[in-house]
Specification:
With 421 residues, this protein is an alpha/beta fold. It is built from 14 helices and 13 strands. A hairpin with a 6-residue loop joins strand 12 and strand 13. Helix 3 runs parallel beside helix 5 and helix 13 packs parallel to helix 14. The longest helix has 24 residues. The two termini are 22 Å apart. The structure holds 5-hydroxymethyl-3,4-dihydroxypiperidine. The site of 5-hydroxymethyl-3,4-dihydroxypiperidine has 7 residues, from loops.
Length: 421
């Protein structure tokens, strides 16, 4: 059975987007969040209008030399009312996947990328086991519709980011702030991943399934301070290793600072993935004891001396190597499922690309790279401020224009793909 790495495509050189950030006009829990004024950056509105321009975006990816395109499915478009599936929306994604396939581009489909249908939090929230069944049904229907052109699936994008922002900080929907509830939601997210993976395998036996895990480098703010060092180790253990361990062994046991014990077991997790995806962006410097937060301060700093991105993140490609080592503990082939930066002037992106690609290009454990992002898009709470695109999107006309980095990306891709032959 053909799984990952694909023998007919041993390396992936791709771009990534997510539905809500590019499609536009998608009524869901996030659009309600915006309407309630809960974001700093205003509403998403038409985003980049990819819902009607996906094929144009696919062609831009092709022009940039990509042989893979990661996009996500809007659950709210597919199931606007519980149990009521919108065949036209499924068909829209099917046509796009087919377009990519015909263009020689591997479609990589994410099912959960932060947003939910409006009924979800009231009828089957992540606090309830009903969420697991609801998500598995969505996965089943989607894999059934796309299975003839898609063989690469990522049920969950960044489950820990969603968990912490949605159920601990309450910054994103559903806006809960309860450390007590976090372990239960984590269990249900992992159960939903496993149930979705099983549903996808039923429909698409040759599917390659993975997780996209956001990994962050952590450093002590004051290297000499044992408490800062302890905090950095604890953050790494929880934020990076917890999920790796869960997929490696089917068990997890770690502390979510300051005092929440995350412990559990799911024997079906290790076999539920064929690859482990790493989303990597930056490094945080931690200081203890906390002044602003109970678990301590965390800040980005330009310690590596490469400058900060437009949204203030440190550029630190050398931190990717140890995180790849960590992710490899999952015992699966690796893919960099996201990596990129906000850089409207495209001043830092060429060097960023070269330095990050250098960190994995000769690593036999890594089988692909997806740049975040193909396009400038809606950066959640920060709205359209941060510009992550290889292609700039004019906010008035929504026209796409190649940034100079497209040529750098294409050139790096040519070399990356050539060296796998
Ligand atoms: O835009 C996000 C994406 O939705 C998830 N990973 C990080 C990106 C940049 O912040």
């Amino acid at each position: 059975m053909l799984r990952f790495p694909f023998s007919d495509r041993p390396r992936l050189w791709g771009v990534a987007v997510s539905h809500y950030q590019v499609e536009g006009d998608d009524p869901c829990d996030w659009s309600e969040w915006e309407a309630a004024g809960r974001t700093r950056g205003g509403p998403c509105g038409p985003a980049a209008d990819s819902w009607s321009r996906y094929e144009e975006d696919g062609s831009l990816a092709q022009a940039a030399g990509a042989n893979a395109f990661r996009f996500s499915i809007s659950w709210s478009r597919i199931e606007p009312r519980r149990g009521d599936y919108a065949l036209d929306a499924l068909d829209r994604y099917r046509r796009f996947a087919l377009f990519l396939k015909n263009a020689g581009i591997e479609p990589a489909v994410t099912l959960f990328h932060y947003t939910h249908p409006r009924w979800f939090h009231a009828e089957s929230p992540w606090l309830s086991p009903a969420s697991v069944d609801a998500f598995a049904r969505f996965a089943d229907v989607t894999a059934g519709a796309l299975g003839d052109s898609v063989r690469m699936f990522i049920p969950l994008n960044e489950p820990l980011v969603f968990l912490l922002a949605g159920y601990l900080d309450g910054q994103i929907p559903p806006g809960v702030t309860s450390a007590r509830l976090v372990p239960r939601v984590f269990d249900h997210l992992l159960a939903a991943h496993a149930a979705a993976a099983a549903a996808i395998r039923e429909r698409v036996p040759q599917a390659a399934i993975g997780i996209a895990h956001n990994m962050m480098a952590f450093a002590p703010e004051r290297r000499w301070n044992p408490l800062d060092r302890l905090l950095a180790r604890t953050a790494h253990r929880c934020y990076n290793r917890g999920i790796v361990e869960a997929f490696a062994t089917g068990r997890w046991n770690f502390l979510l600072p300051p005092a929440t014990r995350m412990r559990g077991r799911r024997d079906d997790l290790p076999a539920s993935i064929d690859f482990f995806g790493v989303n990597f962006y930056s490094r945080l410097h931690l200081r203890s004891p906390g002044r602003e937060r109970i678990v301590g301060d965390f800040r980005y700093r330009d310690r590596a001396g490469r400058g900060l991105t437009d949204n203030g993140w440190e550029i630190v490609p050398e931190a990717l190597t140890p995180l790849i080592d960590e992710a490899a503990q999952a015992g699966k082939p690796l893919v960099i499922t996201e990596n990129g930066l906000a850089d409207a002037d495209d001043r830092l992106r060429p060097g960023f690309l070269r330095d990050h690609v250098r960190a994995f290009a000769d690593d036999p454990r890594v089988h692909g790279y997806f740049h975040w992002s193909l396009l400038d898009n809606y950066e959640w709470l920060d709205g359209f401020g941060p510009r992550f695109g290889l292609y700039e999107v004019d906010r008035t006309t929504l026209e796409r224009r190649a940034r100079p980095s497209v040529a750098v990306f294409r050139d790096l891709g040519r070399r990356y793909l050539a060296s796998s032959r």
